[in-house]
């Protein structure tokens, strides 16, 4: 019942707030290990979950875990979505789904952050599905703004633009694509959802 009202009861990433304003936070994130699946959305027509099911199967969220141990892996938040504009040199950025656009086609990369007990990629169980990639992310810094409601493309685009403007105005150098971090399952009532737009900075 708590998840309907936005209660986040799963592990979330470790970070420290370096600077905070009325408009955004600057956060330093600790290294982490992620499971990711990259796909062309046109290949999954009619599948509303996109790549979620593939990663959920890997950790065992939908039944028996599809990894070589096999070992159930706790769900974490957020799900992360990264988007890259193929025509631009600048790059934009979940407790965990990632979307990248490549020249000629739009590719989506969904990511689940794995629990902190997996300190290195080799510590995590090996996926049975070869499309699932386990990789490490080093320490990183983001400008972050949070918002409630449904993270539609229009809402996200507006948040990204405002955050970019604020960061650049305050002298921060943007070094990558934005990430959309979503912390709640789809059945959470929209007013109680926690979303964040994150932009990587130097």
How does CATH name the architecture?
Alpha-Beta Barrel
Structural class comes to: alpha+beta
Q: Unreliable runs, pLDDT <50, ≥5 residues? A: 84-103
CATH third-level topology: Multidrug-efflux Transporter 1 Regulator Bmrr, Chain A
Strand content: 25-35%
Order of helices and strands: EEEHEEEEEHEE
Q: How many individual domains?
A: 1
> Biggest sheet: strands side by side, in what order?
1-2-8-10-9-4
Specify the CATH class. Answer: Alpha Beta
Number of helices: 2
Taking the sheet with the most strands, its summary is: 6 strands, antiparallel
Helical residue percent band:
10-25%
Shape descriptor: globular
Radius of gyration: 17 Å
Mean pLDDT score:
85
CATH superfamily: Regulatory factor, effector binding domain
**N- to C-terminal distance:** 40 Å
Number of strands: 10
Q: Strands, helices and their partners?
A:
Elements: E1 15-20, E2 25-29, E3 32-39, H1 52-59, E4 79-82, E5 98-102, E6 105-113, E7 132-137, E8 140-147, H2 153-169, E9 179-182, E10 195-200
Antiparallel strand pairs: 1-2, 2-8, 3-6, 3-7, 4-9, 5-6, 8-10, 9-10
Briefly, what is this?
By secondary structure, the chain is of the alpha+beta class. The chain has two helices and ten strands.
What are the salient characteristics of this protein?
202 residues, Multidrug-efflux Transporter 1 Regulator Bmrr, Chain A, 2 helices, 10 strands
């Amino acid at each position: 019942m708590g998840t309907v009202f936005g209660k986040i009861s799963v592990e979330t990433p470790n970070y420290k707030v370096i600077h905070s304003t009325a408009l955004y936070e600057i956060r330093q994130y600790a290294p982490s290990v992620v499971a990711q699946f990259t796909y062309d959305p046109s290949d999954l027509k009619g599948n509303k979950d996109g790549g979620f099911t593939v990663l959920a199967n890997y950790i065992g969220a939908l039944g028996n875990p599809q990894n070589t141990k096999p070992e159930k892996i706790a769900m974490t938040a957020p799900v992360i979505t990264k988007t890259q504009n193929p025509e631009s040199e600048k790059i934009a950025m979940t407790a965990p789904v990632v979307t990248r656009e490549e020249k000629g086609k739009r590719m989506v990369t969904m990511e689940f952050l794995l629990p902190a007990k997996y300190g290195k990629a080799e510590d995590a169980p090996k996926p049975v599905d070869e499309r699932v990639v386990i990789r490490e992310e080093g320490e990183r810094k983001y400008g972050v703004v949070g918002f409630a409601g449904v993270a539609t493309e229009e809402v996200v685009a507006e948040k990204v633009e405002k955050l970019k403007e604020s960061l650049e105005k305050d002298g921060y150098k943007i070094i990558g694509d934005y990430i959309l971090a979503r912390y709640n399952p789809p059945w959470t009532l929209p007013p109680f959802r926690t979303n964040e737009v994150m932009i990587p900075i130097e």
